[in-house]
Amino acid sequence: MRCFTVLGPSQTGKSTVVEKLGSLEGAPRKSKSPYGLNLTEFTFGNEAWCALDAPGPNEALAHVQHALLASDACILCVSSAPEEAVLAAPYLRIVEASGTPCILFVNRMDEPRGRLRDVIAALQDYANHTLLLRQIPIREGDRIVGSCDLISERAWRYREGQTSALIAIPESAAEREREARSELLEHLSEFDDWLLEELVEDREPTSDALYAISSRVLSENRIIPVLIGAAGHGNGMMRLMKALRHEAPPVGVLRQRLARAGNVDENKLTAVSFHAYHRQNIGKTVLVRVFGEGLRQGASLGGSSLGAVQDPANGRSNSAIVPAPGDIFATVKSDHLLVPSLLTSDATIAPPEWTEPPTPMLERILVPGSERDENKLSETLAKLSETDRGLVVLQEEGTGAQLVRAQGPVHLRDLCRTLSDVFHIDVTDRTPSPIYRETIAKPSEVHYRHRKQTGGAGQFADVKLRIRPNERGRGFTFSETVKGGVVPRNYIPAVEAGAREAMEKGPLGFQVIDVGVTLFDGQHHAVDSSEHAFRTASKMGVRQALSEGSAVLMQPVFRSEIHIPSVYSGSLVQIVSALKGQVLGFDRDETAKGWDIFRALIPGSALDDLARALRSATQGIGYFSKAFDHFEELYGKEADAIVRAHEEPGVAH
């Protein structure tokens, strides 16, 4: 079986392309995943094929990346409007990072919204590979009625619902065809000395030779050929499928590429797991593509026995199934198979770095509808994070509530639906509270005596303490300058422990940071003094001093790295400024053509707003990662409102 992924932005007709390709020579077999990655198995040219229809939303990029792990080649569907080229930027980035041979298909050419050359030029801004036009459109007025192949120099006229008719190249297209063909040959000659010599000698190369060169350079991932059509009308589908059949590399090339990326012995690389999901009453289903011979139910794969092998299209198990190299199968009761991963018979190997999904930007607390579901929710989210690498599961500081980081609102909605439909856990979500702290603005001294007599041995401890603000980021410090044994040395650690306890909650109700405590005097009693007494005296004394030290609220500030196509960079400074952040600088992204990386400091309370603003300003393409940087003071009405809100029950700190 040969396998390819069809990917691209939403509304570019990917599913229609898959449907038309699968129906060229018979009825296809289809299966669907709840994550939107759908499989279509079909036959073309007496060969078995599988098309992976990748989800279109940017929030599902992780599943797109994983599909490429199992793909010999891919088709990138793009719009025929030049201004929408930027929407393909994340997909070009993934394709190039993965090294997957790619054919770019400009769809919906029956409704062109710009010149084809402008579409290609706009897309080239985001591609390191040369986008090489293999066809040109044939026009009648404003309508595109056919296409001309630049290698064979044959033209076809589209016919609704029928195979295109072979025609002579119209005179109106002849000059454009010659120019485009010359450009095609010039680019191909960069990768073939024979062709370069033919062109220098002004000899016309044969079509068969050009197809062979084109097949080789695609297999070697040197260029991205561009084909055109309108899948909704079936236009260009046969030519696209023939290009895949003749030019996409066999499964052995994928095996070599993955073995090299994973530093695995190619002969030991048995399979790759690339997708998984949970089904009600069945459990975890894993999709696997086979590279080696003899893999069947019960065989050793990934260090343990392979569970039931199923047909991915109908879900039926058959212990007699022995998938051939290149085949895709589903398996259940194989929970040891991590997804995605490279698989040998005795090991599970981490996938290449390029499969790492974008950092999730949306943080929410999931609240189960009943107490009965609280423990179940934690276990279930752990399972779902194993099959969805775009999801991160944590616990909220302070409350221990289930905190999830999702790629965006659509991803979160799909997660909640899976929890309800598959696991019968109904949840609501809320925004987590930023982690605030407090400190003091001025030093103070306190004298605190702890005395308690309840019969028998009493409690006595007397401490004199100085409390002072520390420089930002230094945290809590403790020192002592007592002399003459007024506080015995064995009690001083208890004084420090008491001071630390007092830092757990300050006058504003938050943990106290960046404060120094010095013990400079005190008294003890030979009988009634103890570690407990001095610990209590220190804690109560420090609390009193903190209340006199002009408490200041501290908000977290995060260092954010924002990835954004260059065309949107002009709007970012305004977005960061509106969120009371600070732009630190920006650079071109050396790993992705046409992208910039902005570095900025953003208040923790504004991160949710940053995610929304970034999605809005970049049509869902931009994303950011974050790392805590420091705490800074927050004053005025905003600080007062946070303190009041914190006093309400159930708010984290």
Structural class: alpha+beta
Given as residue ranges, the uncertain stretches (5+ residues, pLDDT < 50) are none
Biggest sheet overview: 8 strands, mixed
Q: Major sheet: order of its strands? A: 2-3-4-1-5-6-12-7
Tally the helices: 16
**Distance, first to last CA:** 55 Å
Mean pLDDT: 91
The number of strands is 33
Share of β-strand residues: 25-35%
Approximate shape = elongated
Helix content: 25-40%
Compute the CA-based radius of gyration. 32 Å
InterPro entries: EFG_II, EFG_III/V, EFG_IV, EFG_V, EFG_V-like, P-loop_NTPase, Ribosomal_Su5_D2-typ_SF, Ribsml_uS5_D2-typ_fold_subgr
Keywords: Elongation factor, GTP-binding, Nucleotide-binding, Protein biosynthesis
GO molecular function: translation elongation factor activity
Pfam family, one: GTP_EFTU
Can you walk through the features of this model?
This protein is an alpha+beta fold. Helices cover 28% and strands 31% of the residues. It has 16 helices and 33 strands. The strands form 7 sheets. Strands 2-3-4-1-5-6-12-7 form an 8-stranded mixed β-sheet, with helices on both faces. The longest helix is centred in the N-terminal third of the chain and has 19 residues, at 171-189. It starts with a strand and ends in a 7-residue tail after the last helix.
Concise overview:
It is built from 16 helices and 33 strands. With 653 residues, it is α+β, with helices and mostly antiparallel strands.
